[in-house]
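Practice problem: predict the structure.
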Amino acid sequence: MKPHSAASRAPRGHWLFTPAGMSLLVSRRGLAAALVLLAMTFSVAIGSLTVGTPTLAPAEVVTAVLGAGDPFNVFMLQELRLPRLLAGLLSGAALGVGGCLLQTLARNRLATPGIIGIDDGATAFAVASIVAIPTSLAPPMLALLGAATAAALAFGLGGGGSRGYRFIVVGIAVGALFGALTNFMLARTSIDAANLAYPWTVGSLNARSPSTVVVLAICLALCLPVAKLLGRRLQLLRFSDAVAIGLGTNVRRTRLAILVVTVLLTATAVAVAGPVGLISLVAPEVARHLTGHRGVPVINSALSGALLMTAADWVGRTAFAPVEIPVGVITAIVGGPYLLWILLREPRTPGT
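Answer:
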């Protein structure tokens, strides 16, 4: 597959490919940004596997991952560091994509799963399955139900996600209600049950269930291509509904599809990492900055989320060793000032 010979047919800054009679337009800056993010994520992943207590040489890491060498190193890599790294990469990517879709749909940078209450709904239902109404359903399944409930409330009361600040304000209220419910359940339960549910409330990658990580990997593999396709339709939803409909877009169906994909990605990510909502706020913005605000950067948002999550977990695990700081605390320290900057700055355009 080679760039089309008629370079003039491709817009400036793009490559035009024509595989099997189809047309594929690739942004040069977007592709370069993706390669940079991949390289940075790979570097952070190697650092996360090598640096710690104890610190290992890269050769020792490769040997241990393959199941050879010192038995202690094999156990530490295969049972502790590598599963934790995979959980961080997958959950960060899922949160980044969910944030990108929701921000673009609502035409507002604050419209992320964490801000509008989807994270809080997933957390409340997961905590309820542990401390309040123990059922045969695992916490991840309840997290999915909670995320869907919160999203339905926010979208239903907030004008279907198209009314900017009303949608955000309603989402904040929904999140506050679920957050209060979570705190009430933790206050009324035993100390042992509260300790068991604690990781769900702050965000942590420590001792994640392998089955939950597998579910997240499957969900991300299925939803990422769908999200990429929806990104093209989302570019039309940046206009008014009348314009989007006139251009042939089924607005209601597109919004419903975005809601379903966002809920699935957010719920499975929360089931693995807990409520680390600021990843979904910062990662899409990093992707937009690197790609020059062209289109809807779904893939680069996933890469940015994976990079930020793994970097934050690496810092929390090693910077204050032997004390471990949960990844949710690290992202809050970094993302909190950024959130304040968004709230206090002068908007450049209406609805941003």
